[in-house]
Amino acid sequence: MFNYNSTNLMRNAVISKVLFGIVILSLSSCGDKPTDEAPETADNLVVSGVSATSFTVSITGSFTGISKVDLALGKCGVLYCEKSADYGTLFRMWKDGITSDGLMVFDQAKNSGELYSGVITGLYPDTEYCFCLFWQGHDGKRETSAVQTVRTQTFNPILSAVRMDSINYFDAVAKTSVKMDEEDAVCCEVGFLLSESVGCDINTSTIYPLNTTASGSYRKPFIELLPGRTYHVRQYVKYLSKSSIQPGYIYSEETSFSTRDFMETAVDLALPSGILWASCDLNESGPVNQRLKTSYYQWGAHSHMVFPEKNSNNPTVEWLKSHYEHWDAGSGTYTDIGADICGTEHDVVHLMLGGKWRMPSKADVEELIANCNVSKWVSSLSYLGIIEGTNGNVIKIGFGDARWCGTLDNEGKAYSFRYIPDNVNGGWMPNSGKIDFVMQERYNWLNIRPVWDPNMPD
């Protein structure tokens, strides 16, 4: 294994692991070394194997005639640089005792003649490098092997087109695969790009990196999408290029998909107002009571809650206030955004879905209670309240989960509603329950059940 000093000649090179085998390539001379810049070559320093991938070079060599004690007290390793660089300066810095770029030191002394081996990663693809073994005695004596060259391979990973699965209103799953040398994979970043514009690239897209350093098959859930939108997606591989401005990128073919139209969720419960209730919550991913936390909002907030890493299921009041955009910490009061935000700029349903979609008001819930049968519920892995209109159409609401109304009471607290089955003698009673109101502090986090209002202006 190698110890490594950071390199500028070959940016971000790192020694990563011991070789399991030796692949010997034909080596060519680097030409005559200036004798005033490099020590004389020594025949007992022998490179016995070199192999290269796009970003790595594996080197195997030995130091014959030098005792294990001398190897331990001194230093031995590899000097290297791009062939186009001034490798003479590299030797001169090493000879003068300056810790140089492109200097790799073996960290474990072996017996004379035993093989040392290791892998240098983070090199540039399709680039020729000069290298040699070196030994520096504790008495200052210095020797090198003959300078040789090796070229890294061209980087050509095989990227499959992205396949989309489980496309819903607010989420979808991307699947793909990539094939590349395992040695190269640890030097790259693999991920997805998502955009509403054709020709998505790293500068114009949302980036979804994958937490992996291996080739193979991958899947990535996309969440927080918008219903009825067309998205473009492609896979990318980020790698170290010779550009000093930015790394290199390789893209797969672009794939397009459309999320489902949210109007599919609109349920006609035969209400006098003509209002339609959605069959799922805003930004809900998955069945009721199995949703992701992206579906929770503070009252009047423009985006969903981003929970703390610790105590995410029960954030403190102080934390909730500090992350609520309509809380004035200086005065310790709420910012006035109105007592009815339905359909306004503070209605996140209307902001996300547009059209005639909005948050429900207290009056909308009262209409629901007055005109629907809310005494049914089903017991399963998810306790669902069944709200049935006079026409037989139904919506389902998770047992006990409160949902925002866009209305405040006279004391400045926000209305919310929930479905609760009746509890008699400590037991829940099938076919018996109700919708009731719960007053909430506005900084609390709840779901929102959208409504479609035909009376909203276009």
Describe this structure in words.
The chain has 458 residues and is mainly beta. The protein folds into 3 domains: 2-151, Sandwich (Immunoglobulin-like), CATH 2.60.40.10; 158-258, Immunoglobulin-like (Sandwich), CATH 2.60.40.10; 264-452, no CATH class. It has 6 helices and 32 strands. It has helices spanning 68-73, 87-95, 182-185, 317-322, 348-353, 362-371, and strands spanning 2-4, 14-15, 28-29, 45-52, 57-63, 75-82, 103-106, 115-121, 128-136, 142-144, 148-151, 158-159, 163-165, 172-179, 189-195, 206-209, 216-222, 230-239, 248-251, 255-258, 266-268, 276-278, 327-328, 333-334, 357-358, 373-378, 384-388, 394-398, 403-408, 414-424, 427-440, 451-452. The strands form 8 sheets. Strands 1, 3, 6, 7, 9, 10 and 11 form a 7-stranded antiparallel β-sheet that branches. Strands 15, 16, 18, 19 and 20 form a 5-stranded antiparallel β-sheet that branches. The chain has a 4-stranded antiparallel β-sheet with strand order 2-8-5-4, with no helix packed on it.
